[in-house]
């Protein structure tokens, strides 16, 4: 028995020993694993895929982004074109659980009252607003008001906030201000927020100068880091680490606001009267290449984005087209410069066969046998073909390349197209002499025309005058006159200038309508066919690109004016007459710059700068408008102005109409005698759906004057020419 006990005791002791060793080994192994893991975490600073250092920083450090101010875009005189701004989105809390810090209700208490008051400031009726404020989901915490509640100005935000409506709140968002409204919009461009609902979101350029110089304009954001406790409270005397922001550069363009504003007025008038599918107006300083005015139609409002869907690009550089007869300026230049021009040689006008194709003059019957000196003045296609044949296709192609046809100008705008020359067939070679079978962009043609204005030296078009660093005040880039090349001799340029003058002065010239009394203008007209998607060219009297280019004055040009108009849908006048409605008054304005405004009789004297009428009494506002030689239109029965169009700071010609929205019930004004542009202002400021019929001035309206128009549905307005 004792032997058995002894054996059991020894066995138990051995088992204890084994268990002890196992525990010891396991403990040692675990400790080694722990040390390895600890060493790994210490060195890598990661655990289970989580960066511990970053997580600690996130917990005990608070990082605030410091937004850089986006640089301003200004005209040649430093007048603002685009600058930083703030817009507001409005929302309403509808959950009754929401309270203020003092325990008061922070939700919409009275839906009827709230809807009624908001309808005075938002383009929504009280009925529509009540629907927003009564969501189907009873558990919904807050509501927004769709597009009508976004992008509110500071003036409207202040007016609504002053009403102290419970539950009404605003989100402040970075934005971009374009105080001139439609002002070289497609060239200047616009911006959009990277996140439309984030107050710290950056905004980026989408088009034009805003896009091309986005990095320079945007600057560099900074940040501010502070130490916080577990609850997120900033620790007293905690170290603050700051990375300063650098504001974006300011860009000064070569645009002249006075010329640009007048150009916009002329363009809008043509757009309304003749509805072209495309319109371009450019003014370039002939000596320096500076673009002093540039606009296009269709265009859009950079603030409201109205019209953007139909105008997504800058056609001045992004569209290519056949230039038509203005190309004859280059053909004549090449013929003279190459020594092949014989002005007294007779040729048979009308039609000519080239490479199996019949090429005709615009007057297909022709003028019989006429000298080559009349070919340019009459804009004879057959005459230009004759010049091309005499030069030879190789020489003519060489001159087109000297004028950089088919090459980008390199102007500081995004998306420029190079164009191309179709030169494979003999007929194509001949057609390039009068502007077909060759594609160009507008700036490219302006550059080529500059050689005629500058003694044969071709000047690059420029849109940027200088770039200024706002942090140092130093100019980092300057506009300089840049001679691209000299494609022709000075003597050649002089002969072409005289030929352009004859287009205006000769009784057989195609540009007689562009004669401006007292101004020595030289021009070349153009009518370019438009290629059909089915092949060949479109037919019909309006399916052309009509154009005119002018040198002012012809013998020593200070300006080059180039106007193109594509497919006018209401061609109630001859195309030359339509273009003269832009060209002639614009030439007068350019020549009269700096002179006494009383000497100018074209479309009024000087611009009127629109004052701010917000918060002013309706009566005082109407008096002020009358004193400014402007017309007025009042919407509503209130005694105080809450909105106005045009906005304050915009510039208009005398006799234009300011439309006012008052704080009373939104009632229909008497639109009799209003222009279509005035009706569009009415539609924009009220947010109502307005359909116009006809052209001219209002003679009839579907909603009677004085009737409340909230919830009135579509409004039909009939216009008639006087």
Automatic annotation (TrEMBL):
<protein>
    <submittedName>
        <fullName>Penicillin-binding transpeptidase domain-containing protein</fullName>
    </submittedName>
</protein>
<dbReference type="InterPro" id="IPR036138">
    <property type="entry name" value="PBP_dimer_sf"/>
</dbReference>
<dbReference type="InterPro" id="IPR005311">
    <property type="entry name" value="PBP_dimer"/>
</dbReference>
<comment type="similarity">
    <text>Belongs to the transpeptidase family.</text>
</comment>
<dbReference type="InterPro" id="IPR012338">
    <property type="entry name" value="Beta-lactam/transpept-like"/>
</dbReference>
<keyword id="KW-0812">Transmembrane</keyword>
<keyword id="KW-1133">Transmembrane helix</keyword>
<dbReference type="Pfam" id="PF00905">
    <property type="entry name" value="Transpeptidase"/>
</dbReference>
<feature type="domain" description="PASTA">
    <location>
        <begin position="662"/>
        <end position="721"/>
    </location>
</feature>
<keyword id="KW-0472">Membrane</keyword>
<dbReference type="InterPro" id="IPR050515">
    <property type="entry name" value="Beta-lactam/transpept"/>
</dbReference>
<dbReference type="Pfam" id="PF03717">
    <property type="entry name" value="PBP_dimer"/>
</dbReference>
<dbReference type="InterPro" id="IPR005543">
    <property type="entry name" value="PASTA_dom"/>
</dbReference>
<feature type="transmembrane region" description="Helical">
    <location>
        <begin position="16"/>
        <end position="35"/>
    </location>
</feature>
<dbReference type="InterPro" id="IPR001460">
    <property type="entry name" value="PCN-bd_Tpept"/>
</dbReference>
<dbReference type="Pfam" id="PF03793">
    <property type="entry name" value="PASTA"/>
</dbReference>
<feature type="domain" description="PASTA">
    <location>
        <begin position="604"/>
        <end position="661"/>
    </location>
</feature>
């Amino acid at each position: 028995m004792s032997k058995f006990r002894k054996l059991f005791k020894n066995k138990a002791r051995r088992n204890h020993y084994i268990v002890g060793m196992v525990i010891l080994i396991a403990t040692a192994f675990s400790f080694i694993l722990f040390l390895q893991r600890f060493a790994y975490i210490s060195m890598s600073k990661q655990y289970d895929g989580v960066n511990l250092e970053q997580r600690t920083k996130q917990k005990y450090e608070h990082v605030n982004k410091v937004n850089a101010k986006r640089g301003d875009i200004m005209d040649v005189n430093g007048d603002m074109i685009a600058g930083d701004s703030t817009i507001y989105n409005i929302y309403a809390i509808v959950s009754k659980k929401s309270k203020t810090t003092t325990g008061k209700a922070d939700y919409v208490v009275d839906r009827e009252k709230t809807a009624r008051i908001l309808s005075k400031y938002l383009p929504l009726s009280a009925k529509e607003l009540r629907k927003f404020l009564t969501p189907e989901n009873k558990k919904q915490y807050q509501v927004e008001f769709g597009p009508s509640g976004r992008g509110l100005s500071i003036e409207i935000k202040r007016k609504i906030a002053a009403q102290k409506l419970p539950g009404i709140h605003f989100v402040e968002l970075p934005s971009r201000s374009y105080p001139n409204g439609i002002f070289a919009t497609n060239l200047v461009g616009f911006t959009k927020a990277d996140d439309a609902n984030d107050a710290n979101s950056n905004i980026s350029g989408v088009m034009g100068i805003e896009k091309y110089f986005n990095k320079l304009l945007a600057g560099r954001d900074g940040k501010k880091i502070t130490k916080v406790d577990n609850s997120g409270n900033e620790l007293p005397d905690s170290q603050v680490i700051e990375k300063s922001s650098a504001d974006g550069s300011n860009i000064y363009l070569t645009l002249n606001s006075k010329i640009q504003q007048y150009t916009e007025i002329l363009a809008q008038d043509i757009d309304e009267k003749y509805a072209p599918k495309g319109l371009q107006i450019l003014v370039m300083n002939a000596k320096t290449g500076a673009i002093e005015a540039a606009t296009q139609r269709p265009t859009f409002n950079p603030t409201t984005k109205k019209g953007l869907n139909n105008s997504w690009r800058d056609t001045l550089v992004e569209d290519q087209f056949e230039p038509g007869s203005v190309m004859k300026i280059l053909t004549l230049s090449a013929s003279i410069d190459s020594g092949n021009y014989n002005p007294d040689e007779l040729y048979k006008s009308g039609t000519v066969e080239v490479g199996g194709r019949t090429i005709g003059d615009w007057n297909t019957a022709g003028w019989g046998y006429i000298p080559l000196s009349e070919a340019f003045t009459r804009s004879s296609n057959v005459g230009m073909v004759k010049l091309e044949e005499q030069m030879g296709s190789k020489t003519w192609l060489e001159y087109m390349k000297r004028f950089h046809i088919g090459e980008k100008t390199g102007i500081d705008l995004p998306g420029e197209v190079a164009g191309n020359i179709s030169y494979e067939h003999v007929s194509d070679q001949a057609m390039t002499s009068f502007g077909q079978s060759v594609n160009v962009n507008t700036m490219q043609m302006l550059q080529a025309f500059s050689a005629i204005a500058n003694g044969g030296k071709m000047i690059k078009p420029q849109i940027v005058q200088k770039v200024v660093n706002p942090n140092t005040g130093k100019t980092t880039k300057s506009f300089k006159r840049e001679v691209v090349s000299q494609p022709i001799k000075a003597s050649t340029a002089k002969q072409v200038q005289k030929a352009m003058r004859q287009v205006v002065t000769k009784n057989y010239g195609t540009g007689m309508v562009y004669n401006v009394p007292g101004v020595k203008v030289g021009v070349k007209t153009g009518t370019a066919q438009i290629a059909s998607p089915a092949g060949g060219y479109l037919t019909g009297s309006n399916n052309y690109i009509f154009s005119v280019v002018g040198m002012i004055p012809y013998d020593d040009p200070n300006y080059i004016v180039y106007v193109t108009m594509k497919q006018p849908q209401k061609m109630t006048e001859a195309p030359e007459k339509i273009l003269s409605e832009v060209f002639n008054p614009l030439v007068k304005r350019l020549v009269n710059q700096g002179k006494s405004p009383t000497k100018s009789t074209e479309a009024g004297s000087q611009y009127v700068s629109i004052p701010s009428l917000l918060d002013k009494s309706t009566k005082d506002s109407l008096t002020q408008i009358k004193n400014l030689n402007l017309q007025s239109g009042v919407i509503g029965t209130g005694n105080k102005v809450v909105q106005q169009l045009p906005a304050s700071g915009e510039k208009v010609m005398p006799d234009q109409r300011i439309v006012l929205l008052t704080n009373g019930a939104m009632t229909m004004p008497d639109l009799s005698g209003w222009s279509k542009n005035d009706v569009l202002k009415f539609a924009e400021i009220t947010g109502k759906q307005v359909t116009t019929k006809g052209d001219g001035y209002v003679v009839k309206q579907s909603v009677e004057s004085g009737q409340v128009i909230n919830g009135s549905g579509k409004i039909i307005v009939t216009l008639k020419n006087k």
